[in-house]
Amino acid sequence: MLKQRLSQKMMQKLSPQQIQLMKLLQIPTATLDQRIQEELEANPALDEGNEVAEIYDLENESKDEDGKDEFELDDYLKEYIEDDPVSYRLQSDKFISDEETKKLPIAVADTFHEHLEAQLGLLDLNTEHLLMIAKQVVGSIDNDGYLRRESISIMDDLLFSQNIEATESEIENIIKLVQTFDPPGVGARSLQESLIIQLTLKENFVDKHERRTKMIALKILSNHFEEFSKKHYKKLQKNLFLSETELRDAINEILKLNPKPASGHAPQNRGVSQYIVPDFIITNREGENELILNSKNAPDLRINDNYLDMLKSFNVNTQGRRASVKEKEAIMFIKQKIDSAKWFIDAIKQRQETLYNTMYAIMQFQYNFFLTGDQRKLKPMILKDIAEITNLDISTVSRVANSKFVQTEFGTKRLKDFFSESLQTKDGTEVSTLEVKNILSDIICGESKKKPLSDEKLKDYLQEKGYNIARRTVAKYREQLNIPVARLRKEI
User: Fold this and answer.
1) Mapping DSSP to helix (H, G, I), strand (E, B) and coil, where does residue 70 land?
2) Which of 376, 385, 444, 492, by CA, is between 20 and 30 Å from 451?
3) Is the separation of the CB atoms in 148 and 175 below 8 Å?
4) In the chain, how long is the greatest CA-to-CA distance?
5) 69-70 and 62-63 as β-strands: parallel, antiparallel, unpaired?
6) What percentage of the chain's residues is helix, strand, coil (to nearest 5)?
7) Does 284 reside within a domain?
8) Is 356 within a domain?
9) What angle in degrees, to the nearest 10, is found between the helix axes of 244-255 and 233-240?
10) Which of 332, 336, 311, 323 is nearest to 70 (CA)?
11) pLDDT tens, position by position, 364-408
12) Are residues 377 and 451 in the same domain?
């Protein structure tokens, strides 16, 4: 049975402007220019430049006695023309000057796949059929230099995309030829195969000892790869009847090989080197920290003069009469575009202020670190601490910290790296977990690689230094530092 009833609900909805601001806060300086260009292309009323624009406030529409919209253009534009001009130039002393903005250098280089395709001409391929197969094989190699597609899958690719029927043996023969290309190890189906190819192609073994070392290394890679990858050196030594010196020399020879053959070449689909563009710059001015926003955070935006002239023209041409339907449509279109431009300019301006205020709070909170660069001076700091200082929401602070960088005299740092939980020492003092991670890293760097320290022993070392820490916490911090377990840190 159907029933009707009334109910009231309280819902919090974000306005389009708030959503736009949240999205702008997340964008790092490196990609902000692209976002602004998109808006400039989408909205002809928005313009880039540092001139002061007159902005009118389109808000009031009058109604006639019947309640219908009365489009009196004279009244409609009156407030606009009488308003004081408003500057939308966004630069101030908080931002570095345009003179300091330099274009990034462009690295001109062929891509990894172009490098491989250039070598196809060196192959003795008699037919166009074999050349097309070779191109398909080269195109199937990934950015690390590996061929991770099966021969039968390459057969299907050739048949469906180019209507070429190839046999599995033809493809395998082409793969073997491609595996002789530069860089060594390219076209392998696995890490094991790549290392074997690289070692086989090496020709700098001149004396008897070097040739024996190469032979042992090939035997390890071919027949005992699992023991090698798990660093079961005692088992390798026993199975191959090797001395410790022989095994060490063979392992060192393998470690000289490249696990990613393509790593030394220009990244695929990228002709421009990637640079970190800092969002903030902190300098030491006579013992005082000074915060500056990158000038790319503060573009000069304004309302297009042509749109403002249109408003004035409509006002002059419709003096003393009611606007026509076409004039009304035109003025409403202009109003919409100008309002949209104003919203975007305000969002950019608010973004700047939010970024500056948040970074300033972080700088003050970690003042001693930014003054000295000493990691031990970093204080425990969470998003809530900065949110309380700035009177911003935690989610807003999180958006500011995400994907942002600050340039200091001690290097360029990620903003989110300054946020850390606290850990208590034995005397009750709270220290940053970043400090504990740095000490943990130093302990592991100084350990004997023949007998690496277990997580239990690392815990004991940290507790001796006065840090209350559990073994599972040590394991968590070690993983966050991308440090493997003790077994995988072992060396001969």
Assistant:
1) strand
2) 376
3) no
4) 108
5) antiparallel
6) 55, 10, 35
7) no
8) no
9) 120
10) 323
11) 999 988 888 887 788 888 888 999 999 998 888 888 888 889 999
12) yes
